[in-house]
Design brief:
Oligomer: single chain
Radius of gyration: 15 Å
Helix content: 25-40%
Strand content: 25-35%
Largest sheet: 7 strands, mixed
Shape: globular
Length: 166
């Protein structure tokens, strides 16, 4: 587990291109609810809006060498509820970083905000994300439709008992 120690930093303007590249990775697009490639101009406008939104808590995950390996974004859906979105760099997928990132980000959000509950929406064929969220102690609560796609809905609460190595 030592090689999977991560740190979080707030997303900054300098992350714009890297996050666009991660978002446009074909594997990421395939498991997204909007599967079309994202044009640069569209991304820049969206990125800046999210970066300055008080309802968005957005982090870049870095490995022990301070190299960015992923991002996690929380969108506030109610005063004490958020929805989680994340992506890992292609080279870091399949090694357990997803669960580590989820745990660290969730713990950080719970400690720094009034959020009490976090939801994740995952396409049923996205087995890697399902596994990562289940390993991070998210509980499946049902299925809904998102942008015309079926989605598994997972949730976790602030009082969950998880330890995170940082």
């Amino acid at each position: 587990m030592k090689d999977k120690v991560l740190s979080l930093r707030r997303v900054t303007e300098t992350d714009c291109q890297l996050l666009w590249e991660w978002a446009n990775d074909p594997t990421v697009r395939a498991v997204s609810f909007s599967q079309q490639p994202i044009p640069w101009e569209t991304h820049v406008q969206w990125f800046r809006q999210k970066l300055h939104s008080s309802s968005c808590h957005w982090f870049t995950a870095c490995d022990r060498h301070n190299t960015p390996i992923g991002q996690v974004r929380f969108e506030m859906t109610e005063s004490n509820t958020a929805e989680i979105h994340l992506a890992l760099a292609q080279a870091k997928r399949g090694f357990g970083y997803g669960t580590v990132l989820i745990n660290l980000a969730v713990q950080t959000l719970f400690q720094t905000t009034a959020v009490q509950q976090i939801h994740a929406l995952i396409k049923p064929d996205n087995l890697a994300s399902i596994h990562a969220f289940e390993q991070a102690q998210f509980q499946k609560i049902g299925m809904i439709t998102v942008k015309g796609h079926l989605a598994l809905q997972y949730t976790c609460f602030k009082n969950r008992n998880i330890s995170v190595q940082v």
